[in-house]
């Protein structure tokens, strides 16, 4: 397996010098963050990140993410231009050694939480989503600013998008997914890149928005649209694991055996009685997921793709209440160490 770590570039308070000291980590997960979604990434920006990582003995070969625009998801007039730019970004990434590109098809919001700094008894903080905090909120009438929502949208733009997705519906979204995949996956194949789809987070509808990357039936449908080794999953245990309906060790074993996992996001989550959830440390006993069973499913099936510890708690006085909450150094480094132990104990190895 290939151990990786997400890095947000030069603005990230976590440095490459720190990341290189985490045992087993060799691969960097990042992106070009200063280009508007739908536009082409400058070659110089990609090369600069590749060179910076190489100078620290690290390899930038996983992109997370090249955003899929609302124009593509909704099938609007700019869709074809944005898809062509998307394909050009794949070609440019491949030129500089990128092997895996992660992306998602979540409408409007990449993820939804109600609080970023819920304090635990031990003093650590984490991201949570409590249904009680969403109760009675109506984005079509109320001004809502939830964590994870794109702050570049005005409230009126949010309302307009929610209405548009309501009219599109799930089947309309599936049609636009098919349109995208049939144009993008062949380019990825030609370039030797694996596209890894991230599931919806959380994996069920929020405010009536159609969310379809949620369960085994829909994952199967997605992979069948273009049956290609370049059409794979970024199997995020914490996102799919927010639903009690998803048996994460079994799904991991199934899709790994099919060679349809390009990237593993490994983290734990605690599901509450009402379906709310709290993000937790990676240790199995801290949440609702059996992390050892998940890793064992990977080693048993010979998984040799990328994995990373996902966002977790903020500990030891690290503070970031913004978009990078949960992406501190310390808890993710602990997650790496824990995952290393599970992999080794189950007979696997880190490349």
In short:
The protein is 37% helix and 17% strand.
Name of the CATH class: Alpha Beta
Order of helices and strands: EHEHEHHEEEHHEHEHHEEEHEH
Mean pLDDT: 93
What is the fold-level CATH name, i.e. the topology? TIM Barrel
Q: Which structural class should the secondary elements be placed in? A: alpha/beta
* End-to-end Cα distance: 6 Å
Q: What CATH architecture label applies? A: Alpha-Beta Barrel
Give a count of the beta strands, DSSP E runs of length 2 or more: 12
As for the number of domains, it is 1
- What is the beta-strand fraction? 15-25%
Going by CATH, the homologous superfamily would be Divalent-metal-dependent TIM barrel enzymes
Number of helices: 11
Q: Taking Cα atoms only, what radius of gyration do you get, to the nearest Å?
A: 19 Å
Shape: globular
Largest sheet: 8 strands, parallel, barrel
Please bin the fraction of helical residues: 25-40%
Describe what this molecule looks like in 3D.
A hairpin with a 5-residue loop joins strand 10 and strand 11 (277-280). The radius of gyration is 19 Å and the shape is globular. The protein has an 8-stranded parallel β-barrel, surrounded by 4 helices. A 4-stranded antiparallel β-sheet has the order 5-6-11-10. By secondary structure, it is an alpha/beta fold. The protein contains 11 helices and 12 strands. The chain has a single domain (2-345), classed as TIM Barrel.
């Amino acid at each position: 397996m290939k151990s990786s770590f997400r890095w947000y570039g030069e603005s990230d308070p976590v440095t490459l010098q720190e990341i290189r000291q985490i045992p087993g980590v060799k691969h960097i997960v990042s992106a070009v963050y200063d280009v508007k979604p739908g536009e082409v990434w400058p070659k110089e920006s990609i090369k600069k990140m590749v060179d910076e990582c190489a100078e620290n003995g690290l390899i930038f070969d996983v992109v997370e993410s090249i955003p899929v625009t609302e124009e593509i998801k909704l099938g609007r007039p700019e869709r074809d231009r944005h898809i062509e730019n998307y394909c050009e970004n794949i070609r440019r990434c491949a030129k500089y050694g990128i092997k895996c590109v992660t992306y998602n098809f979540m409408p409007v919001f990449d993820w939804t939480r109600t609080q970023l700094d819920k304090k635990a008894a031990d003093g650590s903080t984490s991201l949570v989503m409590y249904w009680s905090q969403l109760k009675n909120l109506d984005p079509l009438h109320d001004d809502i600013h939830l964590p994870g929502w794109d702050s570049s949208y005005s409230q009126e733009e949010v309302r307009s998008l929610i209405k548009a997705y309501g009219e599109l519906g799930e089947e309309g979204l599936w049609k636009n997914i098919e349109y995208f995949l049939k144009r993008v996956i062949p380019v990825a194949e030609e370039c030797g890149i694996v596209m890894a789809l991230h599931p919806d987070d959380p994996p069920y509808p929020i405010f009536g928005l159609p969310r379809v990357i949620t369960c085994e039936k829909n994952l199967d449908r997605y992979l069948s649209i273009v049956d290609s080794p370049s059409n794979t999953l970024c199997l995020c245990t914490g996102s799919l694991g927010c639903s009690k309906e998803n048996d994460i060790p079994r799904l991991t074993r199934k899709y790994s055996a099919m060679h349809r996992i390009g990237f593993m996001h490994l983290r734990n989550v605690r599901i509450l009685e009402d379906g709310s959830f709290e993000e937790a440390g990676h240790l199995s006993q801290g949440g609702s997921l059996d992390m050892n069973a998940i890793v064992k499913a990977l080693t048993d099936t010979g998984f040799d793709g990328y994995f990373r510890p996902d966002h977790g708690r903020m500990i030891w006085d690290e503070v970031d209440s913004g978009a990078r909450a949960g992406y501190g150094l310390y808890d993710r480094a602990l997650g790496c160490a824990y995952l290393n132990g599970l992999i080794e104990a189950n007979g696997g190895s880190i490349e």
